[in-house]
Amino acid sequence: MRLEGKVAIIVGAGQQPGETIGNGRATALRFAREGARLFLVDRDLDRAAETRTLCEAEGAQADVFAADITREEDCAGIASGCVDRFGRIDILHNNVGRSEGDRETTGMDRETWDFLMAMNVTGMFLVCKHVLPVMREQRSGVIINISSIASTCSHNTVTYKTGKGAVNTLTHHLAMENASWGVRANAILPGLMDTPMAIERRAREQNVDRETVRQARHERVPLLQQMGTAWDVANAALFLASDEAAYVTGLIMPVDGGLSAKIG
To answer: Per residue in 185-213, pLDDT tens?
Structure first.
């Protein structure tokens, strides 16, 4: 097993209701199948508990923890709670992000900007801040931050793109700052994915059925005109978390069916 004996924190391990699986839950299950012990964090404890049940069915040890990552005391609690439960932290998987409420620049209100930046950037920073001392003491660890190709491609709203661009920069900084402790940091940039967060909200906002949303998104993807799934993100995360990526740090990795390579 590729993660046997490893302890992994997955922040954002629950998911919104929907027809498909979300990135956090898929990654938890992928890690579970590879032998990781899991500390599943979500603002909604019931949704994290649903993920725990699925992971335990795969034979994994798992615990849940409720946290709002915009609160520093909750972020500190994630690190201390994982150490109390499992004694160490080998992997931190930051699967957090939200774009709902975003606007173009002149229509963007300050309150929503602050809320989205707190969730998409500040919260990720705070969790890293409190997990890093544990990893440094171990002289090993892996941080995986979920960014988005919106950070590098044209995007029609300002806050999400800016926030995910900051995630890329934060990841580069963490990689260089912590290399001497043996701590690696990499980011995954998902493209158009068939996840509940992506599909359900757009169907609701556009007042159309899910398949209409899916077809419009499929048509934008160069690779077989097919969206990816949460399993594509989970497989990339597994590689980065495993010893197969022992010499990989500072990587900003698109998982997007070639969408970010499409120029012109």
So the answer is: 999 999 999 999 999 989 998 999 999 99
pLDDT one-digit tens code per residue, 169-188: 999 999 999 999 999 999 99
Q: Which of 11, 64, 160, 192 is catalytic?
A: 160
Quickly list DSSP for the chain. Answer: -TTTT-EEEEET-S--SSSS--HHHHHHHHHHHTT-EEEEEESSHHHHHHHHHHHHHTT--EEEEE--TTSHHHHHHHHHHHHHHHS---EEEE-----TT---GGG--HHHHHHHHIIIIIHHHHHHHHHHHHHHHHT-EEEEEE--GGGTS--S-HHHHHHHHHHHHHHHHHHHHTGGGTEEEEEEEE-SB--HHHHHHHHHHHTS-HHHHHHHHHTT-TTTT--B-HHHHHHHHHHHHSGGGTT--S-EEEESTTGGG---
β-strand pairing of 141-146 with 183-190: parallel
pLDDT at position 264: 66
247 as an active site residue: the answer is no
Relative orientation angle of helices 123-138 and 158-177, to the nearest 10 degrees:
10
- Residue 178's φ and ψ, nearest 5 degrees, are -115, 10
Q: CB of 92 within 8 A of CB of 142?
A: yes
CA distance 20 to 192: 14
